[in-house]
Design brief:
alpha/beta; homodimer; eight-stranded parallel β-sheet; three-stranded antiparallel β-sheet; 16 strands; TIM Barrel
Chain lengths: 380, 380
């Protein structure tokens, strides 16, 4: 069953649903700089680099879009310097898409001072004080050259008391209005190729999720993110608030689940109708010696792989690392050779891209239910 | 002026001098697995990997031959395991040439117990005791699959008393005879594609250098190395013992200066008639943020490069890293992104290969004297 959606020409990206299977869908996502198909996975390039690999590596393994962290980049090297280099694209020599978060998520983990106007926090680099407001977050992300920027929101921890979550939803709503207004003014003055996504909050509370989605959609963004989940709750706890958030979002705009990247989580979110994902999970596992394979996680540091002549994943022959053996990589890990992290990062990202490609294929073939079941059997 | 030397068909590699300029020479170095032109530089892959890069990277930047450290590989993961994978070539997936040292140099830095038979030492990995003899060093390097193996020698420190150096020269001679005998027996039984090089010792003492060269040449090897230099002495102190060592070596066999890799040292050794080099210097500098450029060393961690849009070396546009700016790399260094080490390693090795290529070209054009002068002006 295919659904062809009408696109809203005022919004960016040019997005249309090409195929769907249940709520899961394959989308065409077009921006002036680059186009891609959704679902899509965005590797995290926290400080202007995906750890251990280059932008050229990312192109070669088929990344379409990477995520940059506004919090880190505004502090080091600073958005003004990155702007001089032509934004993250020019700085990191990355020709495809860049999405940046607003900085809010990292700032809120630092127990900052928050008021209605914005948030004040201490730099983890040098202790200096900094301030983010919805307007400032827009401007910094314009300087960073982000193709897609995120509005500043308030992300409460899980668990949190209802009052705290309610307050976060309310402030997220007020900041969404200010951030969107400011963004649209700037977009009209020479940044017509940029997009801004809103963020739904509400913790694990279904009513607050519903309210937040309604408020954010009412403000109106180019795309919509589900924030404040995948922050420590179980997958089971995550599913209902995710589904309720997605139900509140327009079918014709891209939906982005922030901070999700494990196969079981991805397949559940895709089943719910989510299109975009980012997470440090595959790359962090890689740097700790763990590979993603068709049979699940494999800890290549284990002695039992010392004599293995198999590639990292014998069932994923398109891995850019398939010519090196598990035994060789186990050796590199055991003697602390830094290139082990690089090889596993390349593998885990290529594997995740392939996983997402297989998800798209299963949706297009009307076989997503079986893909989901198989995935949960191994990763659930 | 070109000198065409007769090759000794019993020896490996098939080596001929294609061109010379003074004592400096360009050679053709043919082995069954791979051929190359000398002078050549060998990156050091201590533990079966050149730190931060892969064997595929090495092929792409044009490495012809890499060096492996027997000491490290015999301890981790052990030569028997590497042999199961088809030697270093199969283990690291490296199709071109491998030269291994004998382990002696590293062992002697551990203050081992030495007698006429061999040397006993404690593993730096787990404290276990191990023994190397001239025969054992041959066998381990056969297991490692080395195309070119080095005979076990005694490398005294600089400075050292004459008695110590004399003893080292004598033992080096005795071990050379035993090592060569053992190697030739093994070569005759199915390893006809392997080469073994002898090593000249003698510290800074010209008489001992002369004696050692004569003794080692009398034993007769496939090629000859100058050992025991570039271990802390000044370049000026190094030159005479190097020249005397080289003078004692046959003109028709390759000559290898162990542990030399800076441009000034390279150009002096090439002037003396040396053909092969290895050193951790370019790759170690890279991991500490220093780039090799046509204008000398550049510490890219310095704040003055923060806004530089130039590539690492604006005069070396063939660098595999030329699309990234000094400013970006400075940022990566300042926030500790590991990919900075990778980019600088790729650059410094490619730069060194290009330097050596320019040296060959200047010899072929009869312009080596001017190349040497220019090099010493910048790097001397």
């Amino acid at each position: 069953m295919n659904l062809y959606e009408e696109k809203d020409s005022a919004l960016i990206p040019d997005f249309s649903v090409l195929a769907s299977d249940g709520n899961a869908r394959v989308g065409e996502f077009r921006m002036p700089r680059h186009s891609l198909q959704t679902p899509t996975f965005m590797p995290v390039g926290t400080r202007g680099s995906v750890r251990t690999i280059t932008s050229q590596d990312l192109e070669e393994i088929g990344a379409d879009i990477i995520l940059g962290n506004t919090y880190h980049l505004m502090l080091r090297p600073g958005e003004a310097l990155i702007e001089e280099f032509g934004g993250i694209h020019g700085f990191a020599n990355w020709p495809r898409l860049v999405l940046t978060d607003s900085g809010g998520y990292q700032v809120f983990s630092l127990e900052p001072y928050v008021d209605d106007d914005g948030v004040e926090f201490k730099s983890t680099y040098d202790g200096s004080m900094h301030r983010l407001t919805p307007e400032k977050a827009v401007e910094i992300q314009i300087s960073l050259g982000s193709d897609i920027q995120m509005v500043l929101d308030v992300c409460p921890p899980i668990p949190a008391e209802n009052g705290v979550v309610e307050m976060a939803v309310e402030r997220t709503h007020q900041w969404a209005k200010r951030g969107r207004d400011h963004f649209l003014k700037i977009r009209d003055s020479g940044h017509s190729d940029k997009a801004q996504f809103g963020i739904v909050q509400g913790g694990l509370n279904s009513d607050l999720r519903r309210v937040s989605a309604e408020q954010i959609v009412e403000v109106g963004f180019d795309g919509y993110a589900i924030g404040g989940l995948s922050v420590g709750e179980t997958r089971q706890e995550m599913i209902e608030p995710m589904n309720i958030s997605v139900e509140g979002l327009p079918v014709d705009r891209p939906r982005y689940f922030m901070g999700l990247g494990d196969p079981a989580g991805l397949v559940e979110a895709i089943a719910s109708g989510v299109d975009m994902f980012d997470c440090v999970w595959p790359t962090r596992l890689a740097r700790h010696g763990t590979a993603l394979t068709m049979e699940g996680r494999v800890n290549l540091g284990a002695a039992r792989y010392a004599r293995s002549d198999d590639p990292i994943d014998p069932q994923f022959l398109l891995s850019p690392t398939s010519k090196w053996s598990r035994g060789y990589i186990r050796h590199l890990l055991s003697v602390g050779e830094p290139v082990a992290g690089r090889l596993l990062t390349l593998h885990n990202l290529a594997w995740t891209f392939d996983f997402i490609r297989r998800a798209r294929e299963s949706i297009q073939m009307g076989e997503f239910a079986s893909f989901r079941k198989q995935t949960l059997q191994i990763w659930g």
